[in-house]
Amino acid sequence: MYTAYSIADIRAAEAPLIALAEQHHTDGLMRKAAQAVATLATTLNPQTHTPILLLVGAGGNGGDALYAGTILLNHGYTHIHAYLSTPPTPTKPNAHPPALTAFTNAGGEIITELPHTEHYTLIIDGILGIGGTGNINPTIATYTHTARTHATILSIDIPSGIDPHTGITNTHHIHAHHTITFGAARPAHLINTHSGQLHIADISTHNQHLSTQLATYPTVGTHYTTTDTDFNPHQLGITGIIPTPTDHKYSSGVVGIVAGSTHYPGAAMLSVEAAIRATPAMVRYIGDCTHHVLARTPEAVAHPEIPDTTTPTHAWVAGPGGCTTSQLATLIERDQPLLCDAEALRAISTNPTLRDSIVQRNHPTIFTPHTGEFAALSHAYGTPALDDAGLTAIRTLAEKSGATIILKGRKTLIAQPDPTQPFITIDPGHSWGATPGSGDVLAGVLGAWIAHHKARNLPILNALQLGIHITNLATSISTRTPAGTAPTSATFINGAIREATAMLLHYEENNR
Q1: What was the pLDDT predicted at 7?
Q2: Is 76 left (phi over 0), alpha (psi -120 to 50) or beta?
Q3: According to the UniProt entry, where is the signal peptide (predicted)?
Q4: What is the residue-averaged pLDDT of the chain?
């Protein structure tokens, strides 16, 4: 779990570090960055005799790659080649001169043609850094896409050909297995999946040992990266679900779920079951699928219609598989958190009155669109399309709608309406959640945790992070079989929610 900062902020933060480092050594900070690259390279490619390819651009990113190659050569690597991707001109060199000199002096080889893709086991992408926004050479793009089936691709800062500001993928780009960046995540890391596993290196220290530079952070069952503090579910409030002697069925947060229809009874069943498994509190159900819901989860409390405000309820979920416009209008008027999913999002995207009402709400509203639903919402609100503006599109929709946006995908992204608050991305390290009904499960888990945090007077943002993390972890758990990993389904994900929650409740002892 990590936050990202604008490119301007990154450059401003690096400026004093660069000035300080230059007092001690030419390209001091670049050499520290290269040390971190080399550290990761030794982990990804521990065999010193296997060939490594550096794809080198003309700027600082290429300098990082060349200095990293120099470090590897000095640590016993024997076959490191550099391909200079930019043609030289009379006025501008095609590689950072001091880094190129250091590389060749250490025994590195400059090549002018790319050999067969199977020649290398590791390819380090140092073509474009955070200053590059366009396409890369199509020949290089094709080469790396072919090579990645048998070679590990490691990008420096951002995969070349990915816009670092918006995360938009250009036609000709690098698709990395791993990306290493420095100090903090860049905006594109939050949305673009071509970064692979993200590693954030601390370059503010003077430690030069290969084994101590990476600020990567493992969690239960997968890997996350942090730039601020280590992910700790206890700090997000997970221990609040452990009942105290004074707790009862209402006290840890009652969630109401309006879901399901004749065509989609399963969505109601899955979302209600997920909420029940997520916390010990009551779950209320309103919709056309009472028989199905109670048959699956008899502990749910069904209502023929949305109960009045005297009925204890702390938060609402509307839309998984069904929700009428009138039901949604009623919930918008409630002074409680409201999560809008699926059918509720469709209603919002087609009804300007609902949109106006949401903007006027003084209580948290959460939208959970996938990319198709996001497109409909952005069209309705008159905000930029995701494919055109990337992160800017998400931020603009959050600001204009007044809702927190949880954009679902391989990387789940949270954008709050307040533009001063950072984006948050949660990457599970797998894509097994790409299965029907997983969004209904997520809606139920989120709703239960939102209600819990509302009842406990805890930040709703913390509930969102916990709910996403638990669902991701449950999805990973649900793929396990005695014979190894296998496809999962929403039903199996629901079945793993309790185990995922237990792993996070006992997080500290599990990660000693």
Answers
A1: 66
A2: left
A3: none
A4: 89
The pLDDT tens digits for 235-288 are 899 999 999 999 999 999 999 999 999 999 999 999 999 999 999 999 999 999
User: What pTM value is reported for the model?
Assistant: 0.81
Least confident of 115-124, 194-203, 233-242, 366-375: 194-203
Binding residue positions: 267, 321, 370, 408-412, 439-440
| Cα 369 to Cα 351: distance, rounded to the nearest angstrom | 16
Instruction: Taking the CA atoms of 300, 305, 309 and 315 in sequence, report the sign of the dihedral they define.
Output: positive
Residue type, 79: H
- Indicate the class that CATH gives domain 241-471: alpha beta
Q: Which residues are annotated as a binding site for (6S)-NADPHX?
A: 267, 321, 370, 440
> Which overall architecture, per CATH, does domain 2-216 show?
3-Layer(aba) Sandwich (3.40)
Q: Which of 214, 252, 304 is nearest to 450 (CA)?
A: 252
Is the CA virtual torsion 452, 454, 456, 462 positive or negative?
Answer: positive
Known binding residues for AMP? 408-412, 439
Domain positions in the chain are 2-216, 241-471
Task: Say if 2-216 and 241-471 have the same CATH topology.
Answer: no
Who has greater pLDDT, 105 or 225? 105
Note the Cα 256 to chain centre separation in Å: 28
